[in-house]
Amino acid sequence: MAEQNLGAVDTSPVFSPLYQQIKALLLHSLEQGEWNAGEMIPSEIELAARYKVSQGTVRKAVDELAAENLLVRRQGRGTFVATHQEAKVRFRFLSMNADSGEEVKTNSNIVSVERITPPEDVRMNLGLTKKDLAVKITRLLSFNNKPAVFEQIWLSPHIFNNVTQEQMMNYKGTLYGWFEAEYNVRMIRAVEKLRAVMGDAQVTESLEVSADEPLLFIERLSYSYADKLVEVRHGWYLTTAYHYKNELI
Q1: Distance CA 58, CA 63 (A)
Q2: What is the pTM of this model?
Q3: Helix H or strand E segment including 38
Q4: Same domain flag for 49 and 137
Q5: 172 phi/psi in degrees, rounded to 5
Q6: Which keywords fit this entry according to its UniProt record (predicted)?
Q7: What's the number of domains the chain is made of?
Q8: Residue 87 lies in a domain
Q9: Residue 227 DSSP code
């Protein structure tokens, strides 16, 4: 089948390879919500006919999106939009590991949900005006039933409206799974900054440690489709029995 007629997509040699253009079109469909999290996308044959390209070109584009955890292939069933409910990606954003090597059982306790004026850096990152009240979620993560992470999670009220503590406590999945289920917002990537700190009174009391206990502070900026920043997260991590692990490839 001739690889042509992509409409607005320029296929001349000076532009990106054809499969990259198909990848961009598929990503645009994901951004626009044509296929929601967990839904099956059209088959490679259908997509090839839609874009008037070869099935091989579509397969290469889909392979890249699958490698980036945006799509999930299921043998004999088809290709689906990745979801935070998938075992493969569910804990992709949690990089803490036990020094002992044992599997870590996590529990989440939502301490509070507020609408308050955010700090200046948070306001600017979320693109809010000085009059906007951000959604602030405070929660405590326990590893193997012991306090391990104290978090302050800042969200835009324009995206995450009507968030309540009761709603969040009633949801049994991960926080990103809840964002996805309730607001159709899927976290695609995150940028983190790490440094060593001492916690304030609220942090140390929550983590049940002394005021001079060294903690790992992580600021995370999380992005959805189209590189839209939708979350600023501040976390204080207790690392006496755990370590942060990041694989560089």
Answers
A1: 8
A2: 0.76
A3: none
A4: no
A5: -95, -5
A6: DNA-binding, Transcription, Transcription regulation
A7: 2
A8: no
A9: G
